[in-house]
Design brief:
mainly alpha; 2 domains; 68% helix; 0% strand; transmembrane helix; NarG-like_sf
């Protein structure tokens, strides 16, 4: 992490800690008031507790043109982004995505979509539904390592983070409390429960919280659809395609709709918010990832709608390409923020 970035964040945090006007806004400020001096690990922990709602900036009397020139959301966003890059494993991938996230995302999606499209011409397939286009064994051979390896990478990254911030000894009480706060999106509710003013100084709304909740629960439902399909396939020998009233379809269609609406809402809010209150270096990469997640949902819904038509091979190749890109980029892209913030909440609860 840049020493200048850490030092500027420390300067601003010390001023905020003396003022304490924003004490009830989010988890950052109560955590800040527990100490008077801040090591590098403390700054990193506070940065990852921050959800960039920007309420503290709009309430602050020390922003420009005041000589203190505070911009705490931006300072913490830069520290947070640097921490994700530095703790990422392998570190080279983290640095590459940090500087060229959009190009990497587009290139991976196009390459894998083309690869899946060409695979039909060189490999025999058999089965019903999507398996008539790409065999079940081939899907498992490709996606199992593509799912497990990024999770392993994230585990290494989070362990590095935990050691850096001196997270302490894990307790089930702390873990449970952190999951409750994360599930409720407590830190996106604002200090008075009115929501945040992420996109407008004078307008408090819960739109960002709703967008995050739709995205999170939509993603979890899509994951539940895949998991239930796996259980049906291997546990009960019930193979795809599944009917609309089956668990995979009920979870998948509902989750796909929620994920689409959530990511579109987040993308719209991002275009309306002040870029200078976040890390401007990675605005494009963050937007690319939100749209990639949206593309996963849209192509999945489109694939289901096109079942039985001649569009299935092309749509399946595109959908699998976006899904594979999503998994492979998970430890290095904006998706990592969910894991880091949950870990930061757990570390906060242990204290």
């Amino acid at each position: 992490m840049s020493a200048d970035t850490i030092q500027d964040a420390r300067r601003q945090i010390e001023i905020c800690n003396a003022c304490r006007y924003c004490e009830g806004y989010c988890a950052v400020f109560p955590a800040m008031t527990r100490q008077k001096a801040f090591a590098d690990g403390d700054i990193t922990q506070l940065a990852n507790l921050c959800h960039n709602c920007r309420g503290c900036y709009y309430a602050c009397q020390y922003t420009e043109p005041h000589e203190f020139a505070l911009n705490l959301p931006k300072a913490l966003a830069e520290v947070r982004q640097d921490s994700w890059q530095d703790f990422a494993w392998p570190p080279q991938f983290g640095k590459a995505f940090h500087t060229s996230g959009v190009a990497i995302t587009v290139l991976i999606v196009l390459c894998f979509s083309l690869l899946f499209a060409l695979s039909r011409t060189v490999m025999p397939v058999g089965g019903e539904g999507f398996y008539a286009t790409l065999s079940h064994s081939m899907m498992v051979a490709i996606f199992m390592p593509a799912f497990l390896l990024p999770l392993g990478s994230l585990a290494i990254s989070l362990r590095r983070y935990w050691q850096h911030v001196n997270g302490g000894r894990l307790t089930m009480t702390a873990v449970k409390a952190a999951f409750v706060d994360a599930g409720r999106m407590k830190n996106l509710s604002g200090g008075h429960g009115e929501g945040c003013n992420f996109e407008d100084e004078d307008r408090f709304t819960k739109l960002r919280k709703i967008g995050h909740q739709l995205t999170m629960w939509g993603f979890l439902l899509c994951f539940a659809a895949t998991s239930s399909g796996t259980i049906l396939h291997y546990g009960f020998d019930i193979k795809a395609p599944y009917s609309l009233i089956s668990l995979p379809k009920l979870f998948g269609v509902t989750g796909g709709i929620m994920l689409t609406l959530g990511t579109l809402k987040l993308a719209w809010l991002k275009t309306n918010a002040d870029r200078n209150l976040g890390d401007t270096r990675v605005w494009g990469g963050e937007m690319a990832f939100v749209l990639l997640l949206c593309a996963v949902a849209v192509t999945g819904l489109g694939l289901y709608a096109a079942t039985g038509s001649t569009l299935v091979p092309a749509l399946l190749a595109t959908h699998l390409g976006t899904v594979l890109a999503f998994f492979l980029l998970m430890p290095f892209s904006k998706m990592a923020h969910g894991f880091y913030r949950l870990t930061a909440l757990i570390a906060d609860k242990t204290r």
